[in-house]
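Quick review question:
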């Protein structure tokens, strides 16, 4: 990898436009990953690889993690690359994670409570009595940790940092959120069309998570961490998993599905959109206030 790091240093990429730097980084990562991953994709296409595309996808992320600190040091001259990404110490990271996790969990609990209170859903007594709740809760927690950490290091750690070096905060926020939403649509066309109602929700979720990333916890208003964004993302994923896989709520049909969420997904419903708008406003105010006290 030394020839790559020497090339990016000599090219003075730090002075290039932000989006070009992003594409250069991704191009290097894919070039390193593809020769090794291609045989696994062949096996996956022939249904000979357990987990389908999981192994080659995980390999790409490992390449990303290996390349990232080299990029931060060589291109941006950072002596502590992981701190710039958002790993700002166990105490700060853990405290932010806990706060974000609580907000994410309580947000979806409130969403379910509104549906019950309005008579739009009722508790599913059969599921409550028969589902293996220990397995569901643990599976949801593991999924939330994996999704929360992996996506936040990528989108609100590295990508947001690259965009903020060259773009205004507002443009960086919208660009990051748009890329985040579009990335979830890199699927076969039929699946993309089926997911289309989720696009606005994913865009708003990206805006919310950027706001969480910009929250500075006391005592230093100048230092933010990945903790709040990872916790919030994980909390939302965890509670969605529990509610969805556990079939906790049963719709009554009093309102159309687009109110509560198409196919049971709150990101594709008016109620979920309203929640995300509220979170976006709240985290923006919190981020601004936390950095000016």
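Suggested answer, residue by residue:
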């Amino acid at each position: 990898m030394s020839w790559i790091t020497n090339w990016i240093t000599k090219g003075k990429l730090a002075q290039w436009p932000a989006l070009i730097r992003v594409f250069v980084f991704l191009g290097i990562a894919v070039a390193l990953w593809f020769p090794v991953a291609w045989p696994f994709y062949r096996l996956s296409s022939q249904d000979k690889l357990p987990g389908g595309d999981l192994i080659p996808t995980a390999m790409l992320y490992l390449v990303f993690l290996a390349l990232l600190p080299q990029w931060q040091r060589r291109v941006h001259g950072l002596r502590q690359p992981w701190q710039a990404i958002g790993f700002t110490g166990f105490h700060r990271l853990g405290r932010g994670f806990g706060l974000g996790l609580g907000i994410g969990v309580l947000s979806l609990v409130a969403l379910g409570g509104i549906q019950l209170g309005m008579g739009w859903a009722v508790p599913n007594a059969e599921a409550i009595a028969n589902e293996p709740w220990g397995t569901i809760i643990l599976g949801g927690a593991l999924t939330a940790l994996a999704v929360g950490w992996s996506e936040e290091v990528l989108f609100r750690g590295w990508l947001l940092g690259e965009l903020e070096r060259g773009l205004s905060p507002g443009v960086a926020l919208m660009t990051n959120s748009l890329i985040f939403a579009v990335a979830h649509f890199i699927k076969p066309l039929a699946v993309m069309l089926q997911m289309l109602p989720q696009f606005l929700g994913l865009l708003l979720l990206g805006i919310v998570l950027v706001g969480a990333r910009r929250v500075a916890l006391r005592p230093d208003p100048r230092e933010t961490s990945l903790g709040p964004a990872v916790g919030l993302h994980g909390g939302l994923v965890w509670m969605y998993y529990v509610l969805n896989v556990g079939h906790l709520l049963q719709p009554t049909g009093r309102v159309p599905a687009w109110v509560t969420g198409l196919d049971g997904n709150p990101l594709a419903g008016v109620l979920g959109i309203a929640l995300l708008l509220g979170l976006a406003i709240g985290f923006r105010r919190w981020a601004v206030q936390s950095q000016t006290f």
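Why it works: Strands lie at 121-123, 249-251. The mean pLDDT is 88.
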